Amino acid sequence: MRGGIPICFPQFGNCGSLEQHGFARNKLWTIDNNPPPLPPNDSHGKSFVDLLLKPSEEDLKGWPHSFEFRLRISLAADGVLTLISRIRNINGRPFSFSFAYHTYLSVSDISEVRIEGLETLDYLDNLCQRERFTEQGDAITFESEVDRVYLSSSHLIAVLDHEKKRTFVIRKEGLPDVVVWNPWDKKSKAMADFGDEEYKQMLCVDGAAIEKPITLKPGEEWTGRLELSVVPSSFCSEYLDH
């Protein structure tokens, strides 16, 4: 799966006993015709679909926890895309999970892209056995492979595409971490489902909950929200301040 926003649940990456990034992204979901209500501003003036995932018997063999995963995907007239995940424990005992919206962004040239909003944060570097470092740059730029989990980030991240003069603005709630990934040339050539040169036009920036897994007691529900918009870069500073 190389594009879109794969849903990583109940595991991100290979840090656990399940398949890479968990099973949710490989499942068929059903339309949820009668979802529990969300606040009015999450539906007013937007086109949306509500999806529902429940574990199959096969899923329960590998991860023996009963849950209901509701996902609302909405699109506003101004192009703002919002994903709201609600995961409820309908099990008789607590369970824990990690989560990410594995968001693939299309960029003009990865060497002309920078990320703002992650400065001074600690991150786990997956290229160094998840060793912890502190970000030293004023912004994140790309000259080689990057595979990091930035920890305890703010609710707002900006991805500036210099050549297209546009900025992706990522707002998030319930998702303290941010994954930043670009495979660069060597890893691109090693991946069967990834073009040798495709790394130049893509970047993953994921709202996530990884370092401290989410734990739900029976009956509890967790909500993770991601909002993705695009603004002209000339307006970006003013927009972010707003």
Automatic annotation (TrEMBL):
Reactions it catalyzes: alpha-D-glucose 6-phosphate = beta-D-glucose 6-phosphate
The record's GO molecular-function terms, alphabetically, read: carbohydrate binding; glucose-6-phosphate 1-epimerase activity
**Record's InterPro entries?**
Aldose_1/G6P_1-epimerase (IPR008183), G6P_1-epimerase (IPR025532), Gal_mutarotase_sf_dom (IPR011013), GH-type_carb-bd (IPR014718)
The superkingdom of the source organism is Eukaryota
Q: What class of enzyme is it?
A: isomerase
Enumerate the Gene Ontology biological process terms. Answer: carbohydrate metabolic process
Database matches in Pfam families: Aldose_epim (PF01263)
Q: What Enzyme Commission number does this protein have? A: 5.1.3.15
Is Isomerase a UniProt keyword of this protein? yes
The protein's UniProt keywords, in alphabetical order, are: Isomerase
According to the UniProt record, one GO cellular component term is: cytoplasm
Similarity-based family:
Belongs to the glucose-6-phosphate 1-epimerase family.
This chain belongs to the protein called glucose-6-phosphate 1-epimerase
The organism encoding this protein is Vitis rotundifolia (Muscadine grape)
- Taxonomic lineage per UniProt? Eukaryota, Viridiplantae, Streptophyta, Embryophyta, Tracheophyta
